[in-house]
Structure formats: C-alpha cells, structure tokens
Amino acid sequence: xxxxxxxxxxxxxxxxxxxxxxxxxxxxxxxxxxxxxxxxxxxxxxxxxxxxxxxxxxxxxxxxxxxxxxxxxxxxxxxxxxxxxxxxxxxxxxx
Length: 95
Prior knowledge:
The chain is mainly beta and 95 residues long.
C-alpha cells in the first residue's frame, strides 16, 4: 500500500476545497508482479484515482545505506491532467 499526501493539508470547509484536496494525495495498493535489482512493477488493484486500476506501475529504487529511494518514471499526472510528473519517495531507517 502506498499513501502520499502533501504537507500542510487542512480539512476542507466547502465543496471546492473538498474537491481540491484530492489533488494533494495519492493512494494505491496492489501486488508486486516483477522485482529486478533496480525496479519493480505493481499491478494496481485499488487506487484513489481509477485511471491507475488494472495498469502496471513501474517504480525504480535504490538502497544507499539506511536510505531507500523510490522514483516513478516521468508519466502523465493523474491529479493534474495534461501535466507530466516524476515522484520521489525516500525512506530512512531510524536508529
């Protein structure tokens, strides 16, 4: 499962804000169907944005010491139609 949200999100106070807040998050889950030394593929089963469901999502990863970095290839944005994006997610092990 993956859930990403922008910093500083606030509860919406009206319908327009409720619609806009969806552009500040991403969530999906699925099975890893391919794992290679530098990339993996997820078969998305559930997503906050239906355009990803049933479509394999490739992710590139590196491990450097206690840091895991996962990056998407450049792709069409699900939240911003007509834009292309790259997303980077970094995890760091705490001592």
